[in-house]
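Budget justification aside, the reviewers requested a transparent look at the raw inputs and outputs of the sequence design task funded under Objective 1. We therefore reproduce one unedited record. The lines immediately below are the structure tokens for a 202-residue chain.
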């Protein structure tokens, strides 16, 4: 609540966070359309949309998505902070991080943002790409079809039927990260891999 007040957000209304860019891979349109449908029942909700620096090859996509925002009539419910160094705070004050990626082919398309959001206690709605099926178990987030914004809306509506659900899911997400991605545990696993490789290299 303190963070939300600092950034002038309603402390009670749902806040969603999209992290990505305008590329087809990041699939912002799914987030926008799903959010539009969600607004029909939750008109005070907001979505923060963070993007990277302007990339020329995405110019046509950016124009398309800007038109889509206008056509959907959701501009007043969106917040575009641009390139920001406040990402940890934005993740923490948000209820859900939305990442409906179509694939994870490139290094910048891995789901690092989802893991970072989970680490600060924010639940994530992601598509089953890039190993997310091994991370999301339904209790710490939701897997969504990147081509089905209606499913995204349905999952959001279900999450916010009770104001405690998002907090519980976020707490489960943070616990999962501590149990599976703590620095000591990752260090031990990396060492085990190297030792196994060295053993067979002799």
């Amino acid at each position: 609540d303190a963070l939300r007040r600092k950034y002038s957000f309603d402390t009670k209304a749902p806040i969603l966070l999209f992290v990505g860019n305008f590329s087809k891979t990041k699939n912002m349109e799914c987030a926008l359309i799903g959010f539009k449908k969600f607004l029909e029942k939750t008109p005070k909700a907001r979505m923060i949309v963070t993007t990277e620096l302007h990339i020329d090859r995405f110019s046509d996509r950016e124009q398309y998505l800007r038109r889509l925002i206008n056509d959907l009539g959701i501009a007043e419910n969106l917040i575009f902070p641009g390139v920001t160094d406040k990402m940890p705070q934005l993740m923490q004050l948000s209820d859900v991080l939305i990442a409906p990626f179509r694939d994870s082919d490139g290094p910048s398309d891995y789901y690092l943002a989802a893991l970072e959001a989970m680490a600060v206690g924010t639940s994530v709605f992601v598509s089953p790409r890039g190993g997310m099926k091994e991370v999301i178990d339904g209790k710490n987030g939701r897997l969504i079809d990147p081509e089905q914004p209606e499913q995204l809306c349905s999952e959001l509506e279900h999450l916010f039927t009770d104001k405690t659900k998002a907090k519980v899911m976020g707490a489960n997400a943070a616990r999962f990260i501590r149990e599976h991605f703590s620095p000591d545990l990752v260090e031990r696993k990396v060492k085990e891999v190297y030792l196994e490789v060295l053993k067979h290299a002799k």
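DSSP finds eight helices and six strands in the chain. Residues 183-201 form the longest helix (19 residues). Computational costs for records of this kind are itemized in the attached budget.
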